[in-house]
Amino acid sequence: MPESAADSLLLVACLKLTVDVNALRMLPGSPVPDLEHAPMRISDFDECAIEEAVRMKERHGGRAVGVSVLSRPAPRELLLRALAMGLDEIRIVHAPGEPLDPLMTAAILAKMVGALPGWRVVFCGEGSVDEYNCQAGARLAQALDVPCVACASRIALDGHSLRADRTLEDRVERVECPLPCVVTVAGEACTPRLPSVLQILGAGRRPLVEMDLHGLLPVESLRALRQAGAEWRDTFAPAGARRGIRLEGGTPEEAAAVLVRLLEREGSVHS
Amino acid sequence: MWTVWAYSEQGDTALEVLAAGRALADQSRGIVVSIGLDDPACRIAHGADEAWRIPLPSDAPPPADVAARALLRAMEPEPPDVLLAGATRLGNEAMARVAQSLGVGCATGCTELAMGVGGELAVERRCYGGRLVARQALRGRPRMATVQPRRFEPLQPDPARRGVVRELPEDAAGPAVRVLSAEPRALGHRDIGKARALVAAGRGVRSREDLAMLEALAALLGGEVAGSRPLTDDLKWLPANVKVGLSGRTVRPDLYVACGISGQVEHVVGMRGARTVVSINADPDAPIHAEADYALVGDLYVLVPALIRALQERC
Question: What is the pTM of this model?
Fold first, then answer.
């Protein structure tokens, strides 16, 4: 990349803080998840987006700024962790009212990105591990009126364009698009770095900027966006449909023989 | 009376989305329009009242921005009541663009769709890594949703069905994202999405050579070998196109044998649709056992050979 372009290279990573899905528990005697008390983390896919933005900055110079729309109070250490991964700054907006519809999230993110003049690439995760709408990146690209490369890996920049592999269901495409653009990073694109405790503590010196939601979008627009989005009625754990039969006791040969008989009986293996 | 548009850029998925759209349209004695690339007559035979085709300069599926613009242009006189698409990667992207442009919501990866009270589209979809189900309602126009692939069976074709065929206008702008080259993902491997049985390998497999044992088991079951993320992405012992899970494929085989897989949410979300699940894991507390119909707690290096012998003895 030419030096002048590298000097002005401004990269943006969108990050969402979600509940830790693996640590999620149900309310006692209920199929309803206890979201209020679940620990939080940076969405796995967004860690990949941060990693790709930081790698690009390390390769070409410039700055990498994180942006996040928070629908609930977030532990500061998670934002510090994102900074410790290599972001130069994080900008957050509080938009209470979980869960936020991607329509509103993208509208707010577009305003946040628009407030960063000269940005070249926005990196998003391909989805969030909680709601898994897989829409924010493409919606953001539409709102910003720029191209979007979805599900990207092997991402590379030259002066005026981005190249990446786009992994689809049946094929892998090598694609190219002009800058500026939005990229959604595939889960398989990279392994996010693990910042050390010292790096996390040191990240406290980097800017963590809180933006005013109503300074980005007027109240009427926010109300209209909230009404126009999908209404999230409820969330529940489906009743266990599995038989849960443990084939214990006896030798491995006996367990295998019992299993084969059971599978034959239900037609899962054929004589 | 609802007008339902059913779009997909992929042939198989297009017929599934069409079936989902047909069911919705029938609830209100409405009509369903299939929008895709394949033979319009085939889509009419599979239940469409109208079949529209997006014209393309090549055989490749349309980029999401091109598909989004085609759909938005087609809506200019009047949007449909419902717009459905396949929850493929390009399908989700195209729908997200259309929804943001129109300022409406869109539910992705839906497993249930129904006409709800007050004219809403009521949907169910998996979330939180597939552990939970969300119920959502859409009221804008169009009510938009993408449909989980392989959730709805295509309707039986009726060659006598007649319908309207229409060619949508060509896209003058062209795609913003240029495809430089493309390679099939399934090169040299069968499609695990179509396998009747899958034997899935996880971190409990100690070496690449040991996969031969699972290949032997898969062959006896008439199936294929799949894998969890550590084996495809970290160790690269298996190709990425056989990865099952959130970042891989969602599969619905008759039989799924999980060997040495712990059962993290990332993986489980991709195999929950299997009819019968067998887990083989030495850890009695491994989460995969809670996802299984038949749980074998023990060393896979003992149990898999025993299972192979038991199957061979039947032959």
Answer: 0.84
